[in-house]
Design a protein that fits this description.
- With 463 residues, the protein is mostly helical.
- Helices cover 73% and strands 2% of the residues.
- The protein has 20 helices and 2 strands.
């Protein structure tokens, strides 16, 4: 297991998406936790302690900050001379000299940088606890503002352990090279600004790997993943202050015991879904040994598709079709991937085969996919026919209404396209909250199209 996880760790440097998928299937959060503790100790020894003593807690002797003594009056000259002689006869102990601790401005950002970063020393295990107790829950919470994939409690129970395993490995992989580089600072006599640069590069690398982790675990867009990481990163800085102040309490065996009871009781066994996913994936792989099991390849293709591993997903879908040419679900997904990659004729070929055998496939969504492909190909007459069929069967689907409005607009029917765009906006408004957030993209696109229609008052676009 150690060697397998080490190979996954190294793969994060050159194939991060595939490595994140391997962490979900084969990784160990315990291996990641031990590695994070070790890298945290190394990072603190090589970089953060130096930055802390040279920037955040600079010891300045009190005598350097003292103002010049005021002029001595002539009447007091003798008294002052005697006092000075007595002071000269007293030997001061350097260790007892009063000192002042000051904070120097950071390069580029100045004093404002201290609002969001801190290099205060803390227990090395605090990094593991900070990632587990603060960063991962905060990341899930922020993610739900951009992609409401479920309630916080449901997503936490379902995806916490999976995201934690990916987070631990990402933190260790991103900081390890720069922690090792920091060890060379003493030998090369490089200054503390170089240590700051190495620390910053480690933080940026962690953000990049976490972007891949979020895309793999939740299947969200790149923009939403970057936005989530940019905000949840602040939780990493909160943990430094929190653990520095409360580490004796947090490491109390009583607190740890009650935290364990809480996670196992009120929230549930947070590792259950993680094990369930791994077992499901393992069973699917075992099922693919059967040369006639097309369904196993199709299900594996869906797993890879959700993780944004399009190439692997296409291989599985193609293999499913090779085993069973009547496997319409796999062909439907291949058509969708081809449309997303702008291989429009290939997408239409797949969709034509599907609709010839089942024109109600995927709850009639086959017609929406055909229509959207025709819209992308600027074949709006064909698009209108396909989308009209779909809207007749699914009259409240915002995506289908939007594409039908697009084709009608291009064909010179402003009144009809205006109606479709308005129906699209109303369909999104009447959706449940979680669905409304997922489909707001089509509402915004419909509003943009409405504002450009010659028969439309632009004020209606913001209604």
């Amino acid at each position: 297991m150690i060697w397998q996880n080490t190979k996954i760790l190294l793969r994060l440097y050159y194939r991060p998406l595939a490595a994140m998928s391997s962490i979900i299937d084969e990784g160990s959060w315990l291996y990641g936790a031990v590695l994070v503790a070790a890298v945290s100790m190394l990072l603190q020894f090589s970089l953060t302690t130096r930055i802390y003593t040279d920037y955040e807690a600079v010891v300045v002797p009190a005598q350097q900050s003292e103002q010049p003594p005021p002029p001595v009056a002539p009447a007091q000259a003798a008294t002052s001379a005697d006092a000075q002689a007595s002071a000269d006869d007293y030997e001061y102990d350097d260790e007892e000299e009063p000192a002042t601790i000051v904070r120097r401005p950071l390069p580029l950002v100045g004093d404002a940088g201290w609002w969001v970063v801190s290099f205060q020393p803390y227990n090395v295990f605090s990094t593991v606890l900070g990632l587990a107790l603060l960063y991962v829950p905060a990341t899930i919470l922020v993610l739900l503002f951009f992609d409401p994939v479920g309630s916080f409690s449901v997503v936490l129970r379902r995806d916490y352990a999976t995201l934690l395993a990916c987070t631990l490995m990402a933190w260790a992989a991103s900081h390890l090279p720069f922690a090792l580089a920091g060890l060379a600072l003493e030998r090369l006599h490089l200054g503390t600004p170089i240590a700051l640069i190495l620390w910053s590069l480690g933080a940026l690398s962690f953000g990049l790997l976490m972007t891949f982790a979020l895309r793999t675990v939740f299947g969200i867009s790149l923009g939403h993943a970057l936005s989530t990481v940019s905000i949840s990163w602040l939780a990493l800085q909160v943990q430094v202050h929190l653990f520095a102040m409360a580490s004796p309490l947090l490491f109390s065996p009583f607190v740890l015991y009650y935290a364990y009871i809480y996670l196992r009781g009120d929230i549930g066994d947070i590792g259950f879904s993680y094990r369930q996913r791994r077992d499901f994936r393992r069973h699917l792989e075992q099922a693919t040994v059967n040369p006639r099991d097309a369904e196993a390849h199709y299900q594996l293709g869906l797993v890879y598709q959700h993780r944004r591993q399009t190439t692997e997903a296409m291989k599985r879908f193609t293999r499913a079709i090779e085993i069973d040419p009547q496997e319409l679900d796999a062909r439907f997904q291949l058509g969708r991937i081809a449309r997303e990659q702008n291989r429009l004729q290939e997408a239409l070929d797949h969709f034509s085969i599907v609709v010839a055998q089942d024109d109600r496939h995927a709850h009639h969504e086959i017609w929406r996919e055909i229509g959207a492909t025709y819209v992308a190909a600027s074949m709006h007459t064909e698009a209108r026919e396909a989308l009209a069929t779909y809207v007749e069967r699914r009259p409240f689907d915002p995506e289908g209404l939007y594409y039908l409005g697009r084709s009608l607009k291009e064909l010179g029917h402003p009144a009809e396209s205006h109606e479709m765009f308005q129906r699209c906006i109303e369909a999104v408004k009447t959706m449940p909250y979680y669905r409304r957030s997922q489909l707001r993209k089509w509402r915004k696109l419909a509003q943009t199209q409405l504002s450009s229609l010659p028969t439309h008052n632009a004020s209606l676009a913001t209604s």
